[in-house]
Each structure stands twice: as C-alpha cells, then as structure tokens.
Amino acid sequence: MRWITAGESHGPGLTIIVDGVPAGIAIDGSVIDADLRRRQLGYGRGGRQKIERDGARITGGVRQGKSTGAPIALWIENRDHANWEKVMSVTAVPEAPDAVTRLRPGHADLAGALKYGHEDVRDVIERSSARETAARVAAGGVAKALLRAVGIDILSETIRIGDITATPRFDREAIEASDVRSGDPAASAKMVAAIAAAREAGDTLGGVSIVRATGVIAGLGTYAQWDRRLDGRIAQALASIPSVKGVEFSDAFEAAGERGSAVHDPIERRGTGFGRPRNRAGGLEGGVTNGEDVVVRVAFKPISTLMKPLPSVDLRSGEPSPAHVERSDICIIPAGGVVAEAMLALVLADAVCAKFGEDNIGDITSAITRYRERLKPIADR
Ligand SMILES: Cc1cc2nc3c(=O)[nH]c(=O)nc-3n(C[C@H](O)[C@H](O)[C@H](O)COP(=O)(O)O)c2cc1C
Q1: Using CA atoms, how far apart are residues 142 and 136, in angstroms rounded to an integer?
Q2: What is the number of the ligand 1 atom nearest to the C-alpha of 108?
Q3: So what's the pLDDT on residue 44?
Q4: Separation of 331 CA from ligand 1 center, angstroms?
C-alpha cells in the first residue's frame, strides 16, 4: 500500500490517493468522517476548526461500499478557502497579495524559503501547515478499515500536556468524552486549566500521546533489512507528523536507565501459543511484531506560533522583526493523537499486505487463519 496527498492549507481542498488497497474491504465514509471530526476537536484548538467541518468525499476505488482494488481517491474541501480566494488564486491576480516576510521560529518558514527560493513565505506556510494532517487521517481511515477486517484496532490517549501527566487507561469512552482525550478525568481538568493559562499568557503547550494497536499478528516487519524493520518504519511515520520531536516504543527512555532483567519481557505459554507477562518492548523485537500490543509514545513540541511573537528577522530586508502571527492553535495533543493513529494504521496495514497479500481481503483473512495455526511450539503444530 502506498499513499500520497496534495493541497494547500487555504487552497480549495486536500487530495488523497491510497494505492494498493485490497478488494472487498468495507469502506464506510461516515467512519472516516468521524475520525476527521476527532482530529478537529480538543480544548486549545484555534478559530480554523470553527470554520471547517471536515468530511472526505470518496471519488474513486470504492463501489457499493467496498474497495475494488483500484486506487482509492478522496477529497476534503477547505471551507476557509472562500476567505482566501485572492491570496490562493492559481492564476496571477492583478494586484499581488501582501507577502509574508516575517519569519516564524519553529516553523518551516526560514528553511523552506531558503530551500525553494521563495520571496513570499506564504508559499512555504501553505504546504508545511498541519492542515495536511487532515489528509493523513483520511488515508488512515482506509488503512483502519483494512485493519478492522483482520482484527487490529488502534487507539491513542493524551498522557501529558505541559507539566500535567496522566496514566493511560485506554478507555475509549472516557477518552472521547474528555476535552483533551485523556481517560483520567482529574488529569483532564488540570490539562484544560494549563491550556487556558497558556492562552492567557499568549503562550502554547506541547505534550505526549500514547498510541496502542491491539490484535496485532506476530511476524509483521522483518529484521532482514534496515529499511524493512517495522520499528524503524513506525518511527519514521510518527516523526513525520508536524511538531512531533520524539517517538518512544513503550517506555524506552525510562528503560534505558534500568537493568536488562527488569526491561526484557519473559516468554511464557499462552493458550496454544506464546505470550508475555509484560510488554516493555512495545510489541516489537528485532523490527518484527511479537504478537503483543504495539505501544508507542509520541512527543509533540509546544505550538510554534506565539501571540507574543519571538524575535526574528524579515526575509526581505534582513532587519530584526518580530515573527509573523497567524491564527493558531494553543495545544494540539488531542488532535495529534488522532493523526498518530492514522500514521500507525497506514504502516501496519502496509505490513499486513506485505505478509498476507494485497489483492483480496478474503485471501488475506484466509492466509492469516492458516498462519495462526503455526504460531505455536513446533511439537504442537
Ligand atoms: C494537528 C496539528 C495542528 C497544528 N496546528 C498548528 C497551529 O495552529 N499553529 C502552529 O504554529 N503549529 C501548528 N502545528 C505544528 C506545525 O505544523 C509544525 O510545528 C510546523 O509545521 C513545523 O514543523 P516541525 O514542528 O515538525 O518542525 C500543528 C500540528 C498538528 C499535528
């Protein structure tokens, strides 16, 4: 499975193509839309989310509710485009729009303008914007549909905002009922207060989301080649989310300071196969899933756009100038978790297809049933 997105933050919309999706998967647009809505929620989001009402229009690859094996094409309209028609016009308008030249620290502004030779930072902002993560969530919705068919489920939970931490509970109902997607109501309330205080101070907050995949089949990925190790692929996918600066399997940074006897997961018999009494490996050993849940923590830096902007420099004049201020979120960890779910889903769905086939979901589920038969001690097969 491969996928690609296009479109600008304030352009007409976002285009998504997911290629290599097996035929016969039930694809329900309303389930994808529910995830798009989850990405828009969370205390601390900015004014943009009041304008958008994201929904994906499926324009290819699905017929009568099922994938056909053709590329799946999706389109998400940017409602805000109506307010940006002149600035985002494909053809040159007679009176050029005002250029953005005051560079924002923490954004792609400076690096992007230098790289592509842009004189108006708008040309950088529009594609580097995290609006693109709506497209990722739509693509992830297709991947989740495939994973659902093979019994794999993914859920994220906020476990830190600023200096407020919470223990993950993975209680879906409690998470979705929380304004910050934390299953701990006391921590939720403190997180909301911390975001409100940051907003009051013209500042922003980061945090950590934990993402867990359950029902994962042992044997996805491989140790045989560096770029096919699944831990590496998951880390790359998650680190590619705008503002993600750290990816940790299980509690790896904590484990790094402990002894091996406390960190490695003993192997025991479970049912007819194998199991682990704990899961500090985060479900992966040697770049291969071991049958336990895949558990990854994702660290998001505080949002870069500050209402009290940091000192910066004007791209054109080279003179000192405070950073450009654009309508912005204060904290995005609840939404970031939903994006992380999508990215993990896309990597796992691709790994399922790599191992069990990419043409037909019935072939895949039959292959998995057969494969499970040999996930037991050799003498018992
Ligand atoms: C869902 C989501 C929403 C975001 N919203 C904003 C925002 O409103 N303002 C902002 O400055 N950064 C926002 N970001 C983060 C920036 O897109 C990101 O920091 C920037 O593109 C630079 O990329 P980097 O942080 O990965 O280096 C958001 C990130 C995500 C995942």
Answers
A1: 10
A2: 22
A3: 87
A4: 10
Ligand 1 within 6 A of 303 CB?
yes
Q: What is the pLDDT of residues 155-171, one digit of tens each?
A: 999 999 999 999 999 99
Given pLDDT bands bounded at 50, 70 and 90, which one contains residue 300? very high
Checking if the pLDDT of 180 tops 90, the result is: yes
Q: What number is the average pLDDT over the span 317-334?
A: 93
Give yes or no for residue 20 CB within 6 A of ligand 1: no
Closest CA to 61 of 126, 1, 121: 1
- Residue 163's nearest CA partner among 223, 208, 114, 220 is 208
Whole-number pLDDT of residue 48: 74
Condensed to tens digits (0 to 9), the pLDDT of residues 54-99 reads: 999 999 999 999 999 999 999 999 999 999 999 999 999 999 999 9
Residue nearest to atom 23 of ligand 1 (CA): 242
Share the mean pLDDT of the chain. 96
9 lines ligand 1 (CB under 6 A): no
Q: Is 336 in the pocket of ligand 1 (CB under 6 A)?
A: yes
- Nearest-angstrom CA–CA distance, 18 and 329: 29
At 51 the pLDDT is 85
Q: Report the residue among 132, 328, 332 best suited for mutation to probe ligand 1: largest number of ligand atoms under 8 A from its CB.
A: 332
Ligand 1 midpoint to CA 129 (Å): 6
CA of 93 to the centre of ligand 1 (A): 29
CA of 94 to the centre of ligand 1 (A): 32
Handedness of CA 339, 345, 346, 348 (dihedral sign): positive
Alpha helices in the chain (DSSP H): 29-40, 48-51, 109-116, 122-128, 132-149, 172-177, 185-200, 230-239, 252-255, 260-263, 333-356, 361-372
Report the half-sphere exposure of 13 (CA within 13 A, side-chain side).
13
Residue 237 in contact with residue 343, Cβ under 8 Å? yes
How far apart CA 75 and CA 59 sit, in angstroms, is 7
pTM > 0.90: yes or no? yes
291 in contact with ligand 1, CB cutoff 6 A? no
Determine the distance separating the centroid of ligand 1 and the alpha carbon of 257, expressed in angstroms. Answer: 31
| Domains along the chain with CATH numbers | 2-380 (3.60.150.10)
**How many angstroms does the Cα of residue 243 sit away from the middle of ligand 1?**
5
